[in-house]
TrEMBL record:
The keyword RNA-binding does not apply. Residues 31-485 form the Aldehyde dehydrogenase domain. CDD domains: ALDH_DhaS. Keywords: Oxidoreductase. One of its GO terms (molecular function) is oxidoreductase activity, acting on the aldehyde or oxo group of donors, NAD or NADP as acceptor. It comes from the Bacteria. The lineage of its organism: Bacteria, Pseudomonadati, Pseudomonadota, Gammaproteobacteria, Oceanospirillales. This is Carnitine dehydratase. The active site is at 260. It comes from Halotalea alkalilenta. Belongs to the aldehyde dehydrogenase family.
Length: 500
C-alpha cells in the first residue's frame, strides 16, 4: 500500500475526476504515491470511496442516457477519439514522466507506450462508424429481419500498475467507440497519470461525464464499482485472485466481463532456431520491464540437444544488463514497482532454491541501488514443470529453463499449466511452426519473435488467463449488445395461437 507522509502538503495532489471536474473525495481523504526508484512519496492521491463511486456512476449514466453523447453519430464519436489521439501525442512526454514516477518503468519504454496509445484511439476512431450490422435471410416469409448493435451503457474499467495508460486504453478506446461511458479505477500505486490523462477528454470534445476516474483501494472503490446496478460491463486487467472475485461478483448480477489475468507463458526454442535471435527474444520476453508483464515468457523450454549452449549464451548476454535509474538512457532494468511485489519476487527465488532449482544467474536483490527495490535478472536451471516456480506467476525478472525432447514433449510441458495467455516458438521449420501453433493452448502465439502487440490484433487468454479479447475489431463487440429486429410485411396476422 502506498505510504503516508508527514510532509504531504508539499507534494503535488491529484484528485478524482468526476463529471468533467477534478475534485477531492467526499471525505477529503488522501494517500501517497511512492517513486519506486528512490522509495520517496512524490504525490498525494485522492482516496475515493463508495459515495464517490456513486457520483461517478451516476455521472456516467446521465452522460449515456441524455445530452450530447447519445445524440452523437458514430462518426462524431470517432472524430472525438481521433482528436484525443492528437492530444496524447502533444502531451505524451509530460504524462509519461508522471507514469514513470509512479511505476518505475524505463523512461524510453513508458514514453513509447504513451505515444503508441494514440494509435489505439485513431484505430477505434476510424472503426466507430464501421461496425456493421446485418440483414438476415430467414426461413419466414413476409418478414424483414436485421441486427443492430447498441452500447452496453456504463462500463467499469479496473487497471493494474505495470502499464496503466496502455492497459486502460485497450479497454477504453473500444468502449468509447461503441458509445459506452466509463468509470475507471486505476491501481492505487499508479493513479496520477490517469488523472492527468482524463483532463484531455474535454479538450478532445467529449461531453462531461463520459469518462470518470475514481482512485482508491479495492474494497473501497473496486467492489462498489463492480456491484453498482448501473454498471453493465467490467473490463479488468490484473491478478488471478482479484479477477476471480470480480467474475464472481459480476455473475451474481449477470454482468458481462473481459478479464485479462495472469500468465506463465512458454518460450520454446528448437534446435534449428537462430540462437542469437532466440536469445534476444527470450530476454525481451522475461527481462524487459523487469519481468512485470502478464505476457512474460517466464518458462523457457529448450530442445535438449542445444540446452547447455543456449543457457550459456543467455547467461552471457544478460550478465551485463544495466540496473539503475529508469530516467537514465543507458538503464536496461529498472526497479520493482511496489514493495509487496519486491518481497514476492524474492520469496519465489527462495522457493525455487528450496525446490532444488539451480540458480545460474542472479537470484539476489541490489540494496545499493536507489531505495534498494531492485532484483537481479535471475535464471534457474534443473527445473521440473511440477515445481511452484514453473507453475505460479512470479511477475518479476525470474526465468526458469526446462529441456524437452521433441515437439510433442514441448507441447506437453507448455500446455501443462493453469494459464494460457501467450507462447513463443523459435524454429525455421514451417511444418513444425504450424504443428505447434495449432496445438498450443494460448491466446497469442509468437513465432520467431516475442512480446509484439498491436491495436489491430486481438489479445486475451485461454484457461486461467482470462475471458474475452482486447484490441482489434473483436474488442468493440465486448461493449455492445446485439439486438435482432423483425418487421412484418404481411397484412394479415396468422393464427395467433401458433408460433410463426
Amino acid at each position: 500500500m502506498p505510504s503516508d507522509s508527514t510532509s504531504a502538503d508539499l507534494l503535488p495532489r491529484y484528485g478524482l475526476f468526476i463529471d468533467g471536474e477534478e475534485r477531492p473525495s467526499l471525505d477529503d481523504a488522501w494517500f501517497s504515491s511512492d517513486n519506486p526508484f528512490d522509495g520517496k512519496p512524490w504525490a498525494r492521491i485522492a482516496r475515493g470511496g463508495a459515495a464517490d463511486v456513486e457520483l461517478a456512476v451516476q455521472a456516467a449514466h446521465r452522460a449515456h442516457s441524455e445530452g450530447a453523447w447519445p445524440a452523437m453519430s458514430a462518426t462524431e464519436r470517432g472524430r472525438c477519439l481521433m482528436h484525443l489521439a492528437d492530444l496524447i501525442v502533444e502531451h505524451a512526454a509530460r504524462i509519461a514522466e508522471i507514469e514513470m514516477r509512479d511505476n518505475g518503468k524505463l523512461a524510453t519504454e513508458v514514453t513509447g507506450q504513451v505515444r503508441y496509445t494514440a494509435e489505439y484511439y485513431r484505430y477505434y476512431g476510424g472503426l466507430a462508424d464501421k461496425v456493421e450490422s446485418s440483414v438476415i435471410p430467414t426461413d419466414k416469409k413476409g418478414v424483414f429481419a436485421y441486427t443492430r448493435y447498441e452500447s452496453k451503457g456504463v462500463v467499469a474499467i479496473i487497471t493494474p500498475w505495470n502499464s496503466p495508460l496502455s492497459l486502460t486504453t485497450w479497454k477504453l478506446a473500444p468502449a468509447l467507440a461503441a458509445g459506452c461511458t466509463v468509470v475507471i479505477k486505476p491501481s492505487e500505486f499508479t493513479s496520477a497519470s490517469m488523472i492527468e490523462f482524463a483532463k484531455l477528454f474535454e479538450l478532445a470534445g467529449f461531453p462531461r461525464g463520459v469518462v470518470n476516474v475514481v482512485c482508491g483501494f479495492g474494497e473501497e472503490v473496486g467492489e462498489p464499482l463492480v456491484t453498482h446496478p448501473l454498471v453493465s460491463h467490467i473490463g479488468f486487467t490484473g491478478g488471478d485472485a482479484a479477477g476471480r472475485r470480480i467474475y464472481e461478483l459480476a455473475a451474481k448480477q449477470l454482468k458481462t466481463v473481459t478479464l485479462e489475468l495472469g500468465g506463465k507463458s512458454p518460450n520454446i526454442v528448437f534446435d534449428d532456431a537462430d540462437l542469437d535471435q532466440a536469445v534476444k527474444g527470450v530476454v525481451s520476453g522475461i527481462f524487459a520491464a523487469s519481468g512485470q508483464t502478464c505476457l512474460a515468457g517466464s518458462r523457457l523450454l529448450v530442445q535438449r540437444s542445444i540446452h547447455d549452449q543456449l543457457v550459456e549464451r543467455l547467461v552471457a548476454f544478460v550478465a551485463d544488463a544495466v540496473l539503475g535509474d529508469p530516467t537514465h538512457e543507458g538503464t536496461q532494468i529498472g526497479p520493482i514497482a511496489t514493495p509487496g511485489q519486491f518481497r514476492k519476487i524474492l520469496d519465489y527465488i527462495e522457493i525455487a532454491k528450496a525446490e532444488g532449482a539451480v540458480c545460474a544467474l542472479g537470484g539476489k536483490s541490489r540494496p545499493e541501488l536507489g531505495a534498494g527495490r531492485f532484483v537481479e535478472p535471475t535464471i534457474f536451471t534443473h527445473v521440473r514443470n511440477d515445481m511452484r516456480i514453473a507453475q505460479e506467476e512470479v511477475f518479476g525478472p525470474v526465468l526458469v529453463v526446462m529441456p524437452f525432447e521433441d515437439a510433442d514433449d514441448a507441447l506437453r510441458i507448455a500446455n501443462d499449466t493453469a494459464y494460457g495467455l501467450a507462447a513463443g516458438v523459435w524454429t525455421r521449420d514451417l511444418h513444425r511452426t504450424l504443428y505447434m501453433v495449432e496445438r498450443l493452448k494460448a491466446g497469442t502465439v509468437w513465432v520467431n519473435n516475442y512480446r509484439a502487440t498491436s491495436f489491430t490484433s486481438p489479445f486475451g487468454g485461454y484457461k486461467g488467463s482470462g475471458v474475452g479479447r482486447e484490441s482489434g475489431i473483436q474488442a468493440i463487440h465486448e461493449f455492445v449488445e446485439t439486438k435482432c429486429v423483425w418487421i412484418s410485411s404481411d397484412l394479415q396476422v396468422a393464427n395467433p395461437f401458433v408460433r410463426r
